[in-house]
Structure formats: C-alpha cells, structure tokens
Fold this sequence. Notes:
Chain B: Its EC number is 2.7.1.35. 2 copies of one chain form a homodimer. In chain A, 39% of the residues lie in helices and 22% in strands. The first copy, chain A, has 306 residues and is α/β, with parallel strands linked by helices. Chain A is globular, with a radius of gyration of 18 Å. The model of chain A has no long low-confidence stretch (mean pLDDT 94).
Amino acid sequence: METCRVLSIQSHVVRGYVGNRSAVFPLQLLGFEVDFINSVQFSNHTGYPHWKGQVLNCAEIEELYETLKKNNVIHYDYVLTGYCRDRDMLRKMVEIIKELKQRNPKLIFVCDPVMGDTWDGEGKMYVPKELLPVYKNEVIPIADILTPNQFEAELLTDSKITNESEALTSISKLHELGPSTVVISSSSLGGVNSLIGYGSKRNNNNGIKYQQIRLVMNLIDAAFVGSGDLFAALLLAWTHLHPDNLKIALEKVISTMQHILKRTKAAADTQVGPGKKATFSDLELRLIQSKKDIEEPELCVEAVNL
Amino acid sequence: METCRVLSIQSHVVRGYVGNRSAVFPLQLLGFEVDFINSVQFSNHTGYPHWKGQVLNCAEIEELYETLKKNNVIHYDYVLTGYCRDRDMLRKMVEIIKELKQRNPKLIFVCDPVMGDTWDGEGKMYVPKELLPVYKNEVIPIADILTPNQFEAELLTDSKITNESEALTSISKLHELGPSTVVISSSSLGGVNSLIGYGSRRNNNNGIKYQQIRLVMNLIDAAFVGSGDLFAALLLAWTHLHPDNLKIALEKVISTMQHILKRTKAAADSTLIFLFVV
C-alpha cells in the first residue's frame, strides 16, 4: 500500500485504550503513517475511580498545527477525530480540516460525532448540549465518513429509530448533511443477544444511489470503553483498503472488533477471578494481544446488501 | 510471552519518530503493554526549521503518576527513560522509579543517559551541564540497563576512549556505578565505514564475572534522529526475550536498526529524486 498519512486529533491516556491510544496502534499495524495530536493527556479514562490530567487549549493546538504548516509537512490523506468536549476546540478542528482539504482536495475526514449513548433504553448526552448544533451545522457538512451510534444519529436527525426503515431514513438524512459514507455501528434493533449495524455509501455513478448494508453481530456482554474509537480507526483503514466495497470493509471491521472484544472479556474474567465483576481496569481493550486479528481479521460476520 | 508492562516517560512529537514515538510502536509490536507519559508534546523534533509545543512540569507528571497509584495500576516490569532537559524532572523520575522498584523488586530500569554526542571528532553536551552529576549520582545507581553513546560514557567515567581496552575499562567503571548491563551502542573505534559497539553484562554466578561482546556494524551515511530512542526500546525488548544471552539480543537489536536505517535512507533519497524530477 502506498504510504497513506493520517492526522488524528484525540485524547491520550497514560494507561489504557481510548482516543489515540485506541486508534493509532491499529492504523500503524495496517501500514498507515499516523501523525497525532493529543488533545488531552490523562492518567486513564474517566470510568476509573480516579482520573486526572492536562487538557490542551485551542491556542496550543493551533500552535502545533501552524508549526507543522511552517515546516510544510501538512499533506494528509485522512483526518480522524473523536471525543471532544469543547465547542471552540471543535470549531478549531473544522478550521484546520477545511485548510487541509484545500491543500489536498482528496482528503477524507472520518468523523466520530461523539455526543452520548443509550443505557437501559434511555439516551443521554455526555458532552455539553451546545456541541450538537456545531456538529450538525459545521462539522458534519465537511465530513466524508460519519460513525454515529444510534443515539447520536437520532440527535442529529431529530427523529427516533425503532425499526430498520427508520434507521435507513435517518441515514439518508445524515447523507444530506454531507457525508458520503454513514455507518451506524450498532443499534438496539437486534434481539437480546445481537446488535444490528448499518452502513451506507453514496455512489456517484450508475443508477444505484446508495450501497446499503445490514450487519448482525453478537452482543458481548460487558461495558467496553474506547471501542468506538477503535471502530472509527478500523473503518478508516478498511474503507481505504477496500475503497469500492463497503460490505467487505465493514465485515473486516466488525470481525476485528468481535475478536478483540471477546479476547478482552475473556482476559478480564480470568484476571478478576470466578464470580467477581470485572472493573474498567480489567476491561481495557487487549489491542496488543490482538495484533494478528487487526492485521488479518478472520471473518466471523456476514453483511447483507439491502 | 506473558504480558510484560513497560512505563515509558519520553517526548511526544505530532509528526516524526523520536522519544515515545520511536520507542512505543516497536515495543507494542513485540507484545509489550506500554503505558507512556509524554513529557512534552512538540510539533516535530528540534532539527526542523521550526518547532513548538508544550512541556510538562514536575507537578503534572507527579499528578499523572499519583492518580495511577490511587487506581492501583502501577505494577510495572520495566521503566524506560530517555532525553530529559530538566534536572528536577530527572529527580522526579528517580523518585517514581524507586517507588516502583519497591512495589516490584524485579523491575528493570532501562536508562538512556542522553547528554550529548560527538560531531567531527568533538564531543558536545546538548543538555544543561548540571544534569551530569544527577545522572552519575542519582539516576545511574538505580539503573539496570544503561545505553550511553561513546561521548556519554566518557563524560560519566571522566576518561577518553581511544581503543578497545579503554572502552572496556569505561564499561567496568559504569558497572560500578550500578547497572548490571551496559551497552555502548556505537563508538568511533571502527574504520571509515563501520562502527563498533560493546555490550557487557555482569553475571552473578559461575567464575566468569562479565559477559562482554563486540559488534561491528556498517555505518549508514546520514544523520538520523530518534535512532537512539529506538535502540534503547529494542534493547529492552530483546534482552527481555533473551534474558540469558546478551549476544543474540544485541545481534537482533543491531540487525533491526540496520534494516530500518537502510530503508529510511533509501526512502529519503527516493523522495529527493522525485522532487528533482518534478
């Protein structure tokens, strides 16, 4: 693969796998050159009993970017962003991405619009509400690949998803906001033991307007943190490696996720001992141990073209 | 390999490969769990025309460490440190490592005492001079694996190295400061086209006191930055994977370095040719 440069702007944790810690290693394994700005440096993610660290402000991010620009080393093929809590930071990233797209019109912006999730049937935002309009009006219009979860898709389209038809309508609305590829990584539309994901890509040629895909995957019963960040990074990689086949790209992404999550759950259960509940520390993604699964995922899911 | 945890405290650059950017990926590839504290975040290394970024202070590093401690997740098998410009920061790292060694007496501290290098026959320090006594008196006594270059070995032992005998004497003196494994990754003792490295390990058993090794490697004609950081990380990995065989460990480390440096030089030269053609 000709060397592909990614700029990732996400969190860093000293220990554990969220943000850049989830995204960078898999991308590097798959042969991508990844430049990464750590928007924060925390000890660990915020699910632990204690967490502390430093947060970058807009001026500091701008300084890093402007210096790379002065050195004339800002040709990127992809930009990847994820969890962000600050409206000004979000806007700063939009500014940067617009400039990078001017320099390279083929640049692909992979955007994970992290805003919230659903627990026990109830959706909750875990970023300030003021970010929603910024995502809708400023970020998503310039995104090329969008990876909302079900709750975020509902927020962005202001409509509930209770069946497949509504999921696909929601996806159409998201396409209209900008992105040519939209993936709802998982929804509650599956049964008790499964999740259903949807992928959709806008075609610019032949009669068919969208390639749409449904994927059924096993639910692995544990609270994983950082898996969304991993998902977005893997999606970047496999859509790059299979640019005309969203179906196979998604099958590889989800298969990789399944192997990693299963391994993580098994390792966590072993670590914590029988009868005890695994902590967030035990459940840190076993990325290092899953090198082979990341490089050459054995397919364990089959997507269906809709 | 049973999962081995490393704590690395080094620089981060957004673009390029120095500090943690050099050390972490190879260690991860070789199956190590690496927790890493970025002591700075710069746009790129300081050899570029422009460089800017943020530097962590001691209080911030302490905060990160103390929080990991509160979460009871500070069992490490290795600590790896490299380029540091600040005396207080160096002392803070010594404090942390001592505590980690108390928690795990088997912890191995891999220390790259980055202080300077030799250009055109002249050695120059590129950290404040005040760091030398801190390295000598406080850091190196608790180090287990030490990776000075020739200039740093000369600084630490206050004696020149002009032949193999003097190199080995210097290494003995470094052993006496603390570390059981000392590797001078390259010296000017080779010919025009080669470098010679020395590795030495103190044995605690049988009659032979030290396992000592000489390695001759091709000189690759370019100025690489970050290769020392890569070297220390690879040495950590291969001495872990070959705990009783420093010879094979060093052969793997240096072979890896040779392949990477050759590939890097070839790729860099191709880019230049492309620019000329265009």
